[in-house]
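To the wet lab folks,

You asked to see what we're planning to order before we commit. Fair enough. Below is the target structure as tokens, and below that is the sequence we designed to fit it. If anything looks off to you, flag it before the synthesis order goes out.
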């Protein structure tokens, strides 16, 4: 993706938004990590997706090569359309930050949109994706994390 193209996450140009994170910079907050992970899904950047998984994430127990191959295959038929951040919550007493978002996407012309409440934790180097809970229903702007839990 060219640096002057719109970033898939909707946050500006790719070069100024998610590209620095994909090249190795650490996102400063959970929302920035979430946005950059979305962009990585759009771009099928499995290296970044692996690197930003928290060490406690279940997928980390799998061999990386197998995980990446399965991920690449699963991403191939998906067409990502839009990311919408609905709510965020700063780190709680346990250091876990939350991001509620909705993704509009399709797979072979079928709507596969979903909403997810993602949890992120810092691993000493940067924010990492810990776990997420998804719904296939759509949410609306103004929905809050408190409405989910």
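Sequence we intend to order:
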């Amino acid at each position: 993706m060219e640096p002057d193209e719109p970033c898939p996450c909707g946050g500006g140009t790719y070069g100024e938004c998610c590209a620095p994170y994909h090249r190795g910079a650490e996102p400063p907050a959970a929302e920035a990590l979430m946005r950059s992970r979305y962009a990585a899904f759009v771009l099928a950047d499995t290296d970044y997706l692996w690197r930003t998984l928290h060490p406690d994430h279940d997928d980390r127990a799998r061999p990386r090569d197998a995980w990446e191959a399965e991920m690449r295959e699963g991403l191939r038929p998906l067409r990502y359309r839009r990311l919408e951040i609905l709510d965020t919550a700063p780190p709680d007493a346990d250091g876990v930050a939350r991001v509620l978002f909705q993704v509009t996407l399709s797979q072979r012309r079928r709507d596969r949109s979903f909403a997810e409440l993602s949890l992120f934790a810092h691993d000493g180097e940067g924010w990492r994706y810990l776990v997420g809970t998804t719904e296939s229903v759509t949410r609306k702007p103004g929905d809050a994390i408190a409405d989910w839990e």
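Structural context that might help your review: The mean pLDDT is 93. The first helix runs from residue 19 to 22.

Thanks,
Computational group
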